[in-house]
Amino acid sequence: MNSANRPGIINFLTRRRGGKRFDIADVITYAYLLTGALVMFGPVVWLVMSSFKPLAGLYEFPPTFLPYKQESVVVEGYNKPLDLYDVKLPDGTTRRLAQISQIGIGARMIDPAAPKEEPIDIRIEQRTPVRAIYFEWDNYVGAVEKFPFLTYLQNSVIVTVVATLVTLLINSMAAYALSKYEFRGRDAILLIIISTLMVPVSVIMIPAFLVIAKVGWTNNLWGLIIPGAATPTGVFLLRQYMLTIPDDLIQSARIDGASEWRIYSQIILPLTGPALAVLAIFSVMWRWNDFLWPLIVVSQSELFTLQVGLNAFQGELNQQWNYILAMTVLTLLPITIVFALLEKYITSGIATTGMK
Amino acid sequence: MRSTRFWFSGDIFLQPFLWTLALLDYVLAPLQKLIGYKRMAYFFVLPNLLIFGIFILIPMLLNFYYGFTGGDSILLENRAVVGTANFEKIFACQDFTRPNTCSEDLFWRGAWNTTGFVVFQVGFMILFSLLTALALNREIHGRGFFRAMFFYPVLLSPVVVALIWKWILQFQNGVLNAFLVSLGLTKVPWLLDARWAQFWVIAISIWAQMGFFTLILLAGLQSIPKEMYEAASMDGANKWRTFWNVTMPLLMPTMTVVLVLALIRAVQVFDQVFVLTHGGPGTATMYIVQYIYRTAFEFRNYGMAAAASLVLAIVLLLLTIGQLLMQRRQEAV
Predict the structure, then answer these.
(1) What pLDDT does residue A274 have?
(2) A198 CA to chain B: closest CA distance, Å?
(3) Which of A141, A317, B208, B306 is the most exposed place for a label (fewest CB within 10 A)?
(4) Is any Cβ of chain B less than 8 angstroms from the Cβ of A209?
């Protein structure tokens, strides 16, 4: 049977680029990639589904994938709504009853339609709860209202936005000087910058904290913003990009009487757009996810960023997973939206610059 | 990149930024008149260099001073010079492979934990990244989708990553234990058992980072010229031989970069583990950066912490030099 005789859908599903047919290597490839995609994305889906479960659902074992809530009903003569169960009666019939009370392994049930009738006593293994899919938004409401979540969010947004703007500005200025001027000390400066590409916060955290303390920036958002702004990666990336801009452009602008600052801000920067965009995306990612540095610098909880706040929460609220899960989802949401919109930009940016 | 079809061209954000900068010309044009256009270069590097000097270079130098002083004050003037005492204490060991015999046993525990982490994390991560990159490099449908799926965890913060997995690995009601129970097995205390905690810390760190390395390896694979494969198939080489004799040698420069980046990052493992296990159970997942953090900010032994971070810096330096040497050798071949 050649491929033209096959039903269209199978033909479509088994078609390959280049028109060749499936072989065993393809099957293995797809099996690997599908399993991988499940392992990579499944945990996040699980987190999101769990964040919508009512507290009782979170501690249920075995857990369900979808969030459920036990249905309840208001019965005449009882103050609280009563939980509904499907009860298998000794005569073999199943009736939907409301539970009045549970004592040990026994439960006292009542028919919600006939509250005046005599209650029925059953053993608990006879009943199964009546449940419906239910998304518990209270986890999110509680996370935002009961905890200073919005303060942390605000701090994170301020730090991310301001730090990214500062980074773009000073890194591009330095990159311009290092790519388009001949001046004494240029090579030395370049060498120092490149050699510190490999100096992580973890190596200098103690003296860096002292410097922050001396400057008076402990418990100050500037202490989070400024120190990381002079990124060697950014300077290097922008410089490499600016080297490809022809010098003639700058010469003719000078002849036309443009000031150096005007040349930088009106000619060079717009031409560096793509490299600036890549750096901006990375800067947002670095700052939004930064943990060790804010953990060292900030000790007052009203200045916590989302990451530090989230860590503090999970230490304090050991049992309140419903709020922790909701806050975790809220924390990963912005970066997920950015990724969904800019996926091509981000992946091609990383593939070409090899940085994170 | 500029002619991208994407609605986001960056210009929407760039333009207001540029207009604001243009206003600065009213201040900076007179400055240029004063110092001449050539010296404006110094003005351009100044902000970056200043921040760089104050927050990176000075701390780098101060780290040496801290390493050779003692006491529990972070202020330099209150610290007594103790010479090499901190380093001597770190290296005062009867048997380096048994931390219990060392006077600074936590350092060596951290160092050995880190060594184990680095070997397994880097080894398996590169293996999985390479397999994924090879799979993505085949002629397949949905390459963009799969690439995005594998890359997505890279963007998540370490805190979020740790919490996602902490929830899955819960002992009483975690989904993984539910799966085990459904298979008729018993629940495992994943994060309270030293071996399992070490396993999960490595597995989760691979989960969170491999998308990044996959992407770099994929770029490396795609830069291999098609003619090389055509030549190999004309010579009658099968797929296996083509892989070992064409793909791997040409991928080696990329592999070197990936290896060194992965090593440097693995040596510094901290934040995700700090949230997930806080170094526990006991000290089973306490790695060297957490040792430095604890020694400095919990025990206030800044001198010892600085000495340890200098040792770490030397290790990182050696790794970087190793990369340079390997690159040079590859270029020479």
Answers:
(1) 81
(2) 8
(3) A141
(4) yes
The answer to whether A208 contacts B55, with C-beta atoms less than 8 Å apart, is yes
A54: alpha, beta or left? (left if phi > 0; alpha if psi -120 to 50): beta
What pLDDT was estimated at residue B40?
Answer: 87
Contact status, residue B170 vs residue B191, Cβ threshold 8 Å: no
Q: What are the boundaries of each domain within chain A?
A: 3-50, 72-129, 140-353
Superfamily assignment of A140-353 in CATH? MetI-like (1.10.3720.10)
Residue in chain B closest to A285 (alpha carbons) equals B155
Which of A290, A302, A294 minimizes the C-alpha distance to A151?
A302
- For residue B5, what pLDDT is reported? 40
* Confidence at residue B7, expressed as pLDDT on a 0 to 100 scale: 42
Q: How far apart are CA B33 and CA B77, in angstroms?
A: 44
Q: Which of B18, B50, B52, B79 to mutate to test the interface with A (most CBs of A within 10 A)?
A: B52
What pLDDT, in 10s, does the model give residues A89-134?
Answer: 888 788 888 888 888 788 888 888 777 777 888 887 788 888 777 7
- What does the pLDDT read at residue A353? 64
